[in-house]
Design brief:
CO_DH_flav_C_dom_sf; Xanthine dehydrogenase YagS FAD-binding subunit; 12 strands; 32% helix; 5-stranded antiparallel β-sheet; Uridine Diphospho-n-acetylenolpyruvylglucosamine Reductase, domain 2; FAD-bd_PCMH_sub1; 13 helices; globular; alpha+beta; flavoprotein
Length: 327
C-alpha cells in the first residue's frame, strides 16, 4: 500500500489552494483513469483533491443554440441528454463508444479530456518511457507500436491520446473553460489544449499547475448539419480506437477530426479545405485525407492507419451525405 492524503474540496478556491500546496498533489474527478494509474504505480500522488462535488456538473442549452457542459458532468448524463443527442449527435456517439456503462456513469467530462495515454509502456513501470520517466527513452518505437501514433509524434514518444470525447469536441470547435488558481477564467480552444510530445512528452497539455477545467462550450452547430462519430477498434466491446473519426457536414463545409492516430485529436484542416464546396467521390475523399498525412511518421506496424483513416472518412462522409439527402 502507498499512503496518500485525500481531501474533498468545498469550493474552487479551496481546491486550487490544496492542489498547489504540494508538488505531488492531483485533482480527482471520476477517478476512472487516475485510480488505475495509482494502482499500477505509474502515478504516486501525495495528495488527492476530490473536485467531483464542485458546482460544475450542469448541462446548459443556451439561447444562441450552443451548449455549456460542466467539467464535473458525468459522461453518461451528457451522452443521454436529449438536446445533445439531437443537436450534437457525434458527441453522444463518441461517449457511448468510449467505455462501458459503469465507467460512463463515473467518469467526468474534464477527466476524460485530461486522461493519460493508454500506451502499454507508459503503464508498465518496468519499461523505459519518456512520458513517465523523462529521458529514459521510448520503448514503443522499437517495440509493439501497432496501436500508437502515426502523426504529430516525435523520436521521444509515439503515444496516442485515448479520448473519444475530445475527438468529437474537436469537430465541433469546442472551447474549454479553465479556472486559474488565482480565480482568473480563461478559454482554451480544444485544438490548443493538448500539446504534441516534441522533446518534452511528459508535458501533455497547456494547463498550468492548479488549473481546473470547469466546463466546455460548444458553439451552435451549422444550420442543417448532419454529424456522426465512427470508431474502428479490435473488438466491439470496450476498446480504444485503432482509428476513429468525428464528422460534421453542412451545405458549405465539412469538419473532420481523427482519433487513434496522434497524441491529440487530429483535425483534418487540409482535407476540409480540399473538400469544401465540392461533391466529392469516395476516391476524392480518400485522396484529400491522405494529403493530411504529408508529415506523418508511421512505424512499420502502424502505417496501415493512414489508409484505414482514408477509407473511414470516405465511408462516413458518404453515409452523412445520404442522411442529409433523406432529411
Amino acid at each position: 500500500m502507498r499512503a496518500f492524503r485525500y481531501a474533498r474540496a468545498t469550493d474552487p478556491g479551496a481546491a486550487a489552494a490544496l492542489v498547489t500546496s504540494q508538488p505531488d498533489a492531483v485533482y480527482l474527478g471520476g477517478g476512472t483513469n487516475l485510480v488505475d494509474l495509482m494502482k499500477l504505480g505509474v502515478l504516486r500522488p501525495g495528495l488527492v483533491v476530490d473536485v467531483s462535488r464542485l458546482p460544475y456538473d450542469r448541462i446548459e442549452h443556451l439561447p444562441d443554440g450552443g451548449v455549456l457542459i460542466g467539467g464535473a458532468a458525468r459522461n453518461r448524463r451528457v451522452a443521454h441528454d436529449e438536446g445533445i443527442r439531437r443537436r450534437y449527435p457525434a458527441l453522444a456517439r463518441a461517449l457511448l463508444s468510449g467505455a462501458s456503462g459503469q465507467i460512463r456513469s463515473q467518469a467526468t467530462v474534464a477527466g476524460n479530456l485530461l486522461q493519460r495515454t493508454r500506451c502499454p509502456y507508459f503503464q508498465n513501470t518496468a519499461t523505459p518511457c519518456n512520458k513517465r520517466d523523462p529521458g529514459s527513452g521510448c520503448s514503443a518505437i522499437p517495440g509493439a507500436h501497432r496501436d500508437l501514433g502515426v502523426i504529430g509524434t516525435s523520436e521521444h514518444c509515439v503515444a496516442t491520446h485515448p479520448s473519444d470525447l475530445a475527438v468529437a469536441l474537436a469537430a465541433y470547435d469546442a472551447v474549454v473553460e479553465v479556472r486559474r488558481p488565482d480565480g482568473a477564467e480563461v478559454l482554451v480552444p480544444i485544438g490548443d489544449l493538448h500539446r504534441l510530445p516534441g522533446d518534452t512528452p511528459w508535458i501533455e497539455t497547456v494547463l498550468e499547475p492548479g488549473d481546473l477545467v470547469t466546463g466546455v462550450q460548444l458553439p451552435p452547430p451549422p444550420d442543417g448539419a448532419v454529424a456522426t462519430y465512427r470508431k474502428v477498434r479490435d473488438r466491439w466491446s470496450f476498446a480504444f480506437a485503432t482509428v476513429s473519426v468525428a464528422a460534421v457536414l453542412s451545405t458549405d463545409q465539412v469538419r473532420l477530426a481523427l482519433g487513434g492516430v496522434a497524441p491529440k485529436p487530429w483535425r483534418l484542416t487540409a482535407t476540409e479545405r480540399m473538400l469544401a464546396g465540392t461533391d466529392p467521390s469516395d476516391d476524392d475523399v480518400r485522396a484529400a485525407t491522405r494529403a493530411a498525412f504529408t508529415d506523418a511518421r508511421p512505424l512499420p506496424e502502424n502505417a496501415f492507419k493512414i489508409e484505414l483513416a482514408a477509407d473511414l472518412v470516405a465511408a462516413v462522409l458518404r453515409d452523412l451525405r445520404t442522411a442529409g439527402a433523406v432529411r
